[in-house]
Design brief:
- The chain is 65% helix and 2% strand.
- The chain is mostly helical.
- A two-stranded antiparallel sheet has the order 1-2.
- It is globular, with a radius of gyration of 17 Å.
């Protein structure tokens, strides 16, 4: 993969070797987690239709996904850990403690590790190692200083000035934008 901005679906298709059920699994998890984040944070208006859609995805579509069904024993523990990490991050980021904010930044988007595991399940250890850093760069694109600047009551460290573009955050658990930079070939 060359360094260029590409849509998320295309990126997932590349790192998951065009395995459509795996790509759909990741997209389903991202959508469900984003809806949960929007509900818990209360920082975005969310429609009843979006909530019903997320529940439909979680209860009907995800369990029927052939990639998930074939790999549930590997994926379910990772999803449980990702959800707990995210839950902890929502508590830690609200304490207004500098160290807790750093911990929250690390914990808040562990779904990236699920994508890395999907690459392993599809292509084995060698393939996973080949694409794992690109996956992490693609999905972990927010800077710590920008994240900290978006938290109320947590001042950025002097060595980590927030960029002028830092905005109040809407802590996404998965990226929804249509393009991101892939950083590994």
């Amino acid at each position: 993969m060359s360094e260029q901005a590409i849509p998320e679906r295309q990126f997932l298709s590349q790192v998951l070797q065009q395995n459509e059920p795996a790509v759909s699994f990741c997209e389903q998890i991202f959508g469900i987690s984003q809806t949960l984040d929007d509900i818990v944070d209360g920082d975005k208006s969310i429609t009843q239709g979006a909530i019903i859609h997320a529940f439909w995805q979680a209860l009907i579509e995800l369990p029927a996904n052939p990639f998930y069904r074939a790999n549930e024993m590997f994926l379910r523990p990772l999803l449980a850990q990702s959800l707990q990490d995210w839950t902890d991050s929502t508590v830690l980021e609200r304490t207004q403690d500098e160290h807790d904010a750093s911990l929250a930044f690390v914990l808040r988007d562990q779904l990236t590790g699920v994508v890395v595991q999907c690459a392993y399940l599809i292509g084995g250890a060698q393939w996973m190692r080949q694409v794992s850093t690109a996956i992490r760069r693609y999905f972990h694109d927010e800077k710590l200083a920008d994240y900290r600047a978006s938290l109320p009551g947590v001042e950025p460290e002097p060595s980590e000035p927030a960029s002028p573009a830092a905005q109040p955050r809407s802590k996404p658990t998965a990226k929804k934008s249509s393009t991101k930079a892939s950083a590994q070939s």
